[in-house]
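note to self: dont lose this again. the chain is below, predicted strucutre after it. 126 aa total, dont forget to put it in the shared folder this time
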Amino acid sequence: MQKSSDARLAWATWLPLLGLLVIMVASGLPLLRMGHGWFGYLYAAGAVLVLVGRLIYPVPKDCPLRLKRLLRMEIWTALVFVTGAVFTFLNQRGGNDWLAFTMAGGVLTIYTSIMIPRQKLDKSRR
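---
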């Protein structure tokens, strides 16, 4: 049983990291005027990787409520990236709504990446 949970934790750690890197590369393509036909697919693949990784992350049973909320916020952040991926496929004249969702997801990702380790550290001190 321990081996299964270790593998799940490994997947839950690496999938969002890989997904965020893919989103970063895909977001840079339109700015460099490259990949107009397929950047949306690359962005969507990264968003799906982030979402799957966040969904399979095991939430500890004895963790504080604030840490549970932060982990849930990571799932909502992944959904923000998925919404941004949807906007890459909509026909819009010069619209960059996908970019707004990408920046919002980035801000939430930065916030949770700072606050989750703090909460885990506070939990270990108790």
